[in-house]
Amino acid sequence: MALRDRRLPELALFAAAAILHTWPLASAPGTWARVDNADTALNAWAIAWVGMALLRDPLNLFNANIFYPEPRTLAFSEVMLPQAVLGAPLTWVGLDPVLVYNLLVLAGFALSGFAMAWLVSQWTGDRAAGVVAGLAYAFNAHILVRFGHLQAMHVQYLPLALFALDRLLAVPRARWALLLAGACVLQALTSNYLLVMTALAMAAAAAVRPEAWRLAQLTAIALAGLAAAALLAPFLHPYWLAHTMQGLVRTFDDVAMYSATWRDWLSTGGTLHHWLWSHRWFGSTSALFPGMTVTLLALGALASGRAWRDPRARMALAIGIIGLALSFGANLPGYRQLYELVPILKGIRVVSRFGWLTLFALPVLAGFTLAAMRARAGRTVRTALAVGAGLLITVEALRAPMGFTVYEGIPRIYDRVASMDDIVLAELPFPPRGAIQDNGPSVLYAAWHLRPLLNGYSGFTPASYTTHAEVMRQFPTPDAVRSLRAIGVTHVLVHTRRVPAELVRQAAESPDLALVAGEGDQVLYALSSGGR
């Protein structure tokens, strides 16, 4: 039987689980959204920008259109190349960026679960145990509270990387080295956080396999690492330039602010546990509760000794321990010294997210336990064990129906903006630095028109933004118009319901502004060539 015939039902099951856990998103993916969250707007913009840049001008991929006139503004956040490639055909045919984003959310859940199911079934020989592990991996508390972060949902490559590493340690052949390098690169390009976590996971997994430390294996791993580094270098270089030339940095104070405590490990948005206890602190912590079912099954691997006797389970155990320890960040004795010694740790601000490595490891260990239990049971009990574990894991994680807002689409005036050549746009309101997340709608709309935009929102805010905010605060005075022209801005779009009525009146009466178009609550002005 062909692979697609044997595995297609599993993929369909994970797609159905994605629909269930995110309901009602699938009922209207172009209408339901979390665009009230600026991170959603940012990531929807990034997917659209990268997709179009790959088609039109890949050499200028990082010179994105927000925070004009700053260079390399895509490096202020994450490139998300694999997600953008998956969504590129939809972007190219003109689908709304929010619709593309939502479809990628569903795809990420399904593909991540499917990849984990494949890994565990390969290692245990039990496809049902693999499916249960996939459910625990793809639909955990951490991922189900991060709808604004498409990065968190596309974690389908780490299972492939771990599989390749295991095969490479057993048989040091080029194909396994290439698979290891490719899977690591793909996972790294989904998120800068996952770049660091994948590297640490591979190091931890290899470190606990001393029986395979032979010259051929170590050479193959080194070659895989060099290949991965070479493939990542063009994408990492803009981040280095942003660090050295634009001040992009994560301080240890940031680490301290986002370090996990025991409350994070008991925090979940899942309805059942939220009602029982998590409501007491949920929302003020990172949700890292792995669930009782998967935890008990994983503990079974420890109690039986399988977690260290089986070299594959031992790899997962090492990854889980590293993730648990590092998630405590500044609360972990010695972390500050580690932070100074290991350069890649400086790229992680929300260190509690290291806990994702533990949420990766526990389903693997749980899969080993469930497979062993099923191997000793009769047919009826085997089925009951798999179905029961899958249902319990699903019930524990389930938050549906999810809370979404109604997305009304891209305002029509942005079609006019998109049709204009040589336009550099600024939008009002232009919030101060402390409220920069209010630029979320402007950034989202920039995914549609793709023209240079003075506004911006990202994980890093350049110093120039403060200067531009002060200029926009004085708009539409003649001095402000002259300053905007000096920067290179040619047009200003005013969202009339989001600014004071007096500003709307002054803009309409200003001799330095020429009305270009008005659509609903948006008015587009061209700046005069010289101002008064």
What is this structure, in a nutshell?
By secondary structure, the protein is mainly alpha-helical.
Q: Please, could you describe this protein's structure?
A:
By secondary structure, the protein is mainly α. Among the domains are: about 155-395, no CATH class; about 415-525, no CATH class. It is about 60% helix and about 5% strand. The chain has 23 helices and 6 strands. The protein has helices at about 5-20, 40-55, 80-90, 95-125, 125-140, 150-155, 155-170, 175-190, 190-205, 215-245, 250-255, 270-275, 290-305, 305-310, 310-325, 335-340, 355-375, 380-395, 415-420, 440-450, 465-475, 480-485, 500-510, and strands at about 30-35, 405, 425-430, 490-495, 515-520, 520-525. It has a 4-stranded mixed sheet with strand order 3-4-6-5. Strands 1-2 form a two-stranded antiparallel ribbon. A hairpin with a 2-residue loop joins strand 5 (about 515-520) and strand 6 (about 520-525). Helix 4 (about 95-125) packs antiparallel against helix 5 (about 125-140), helix 5 (about 125-140) packs parallel to helix 18 (about 380-395) and helix 21 runs antiparallel to helix 22. The chain is elongated and about 85 Å long. The model has no long low-confidence stretch (mean pLDDT about 95).
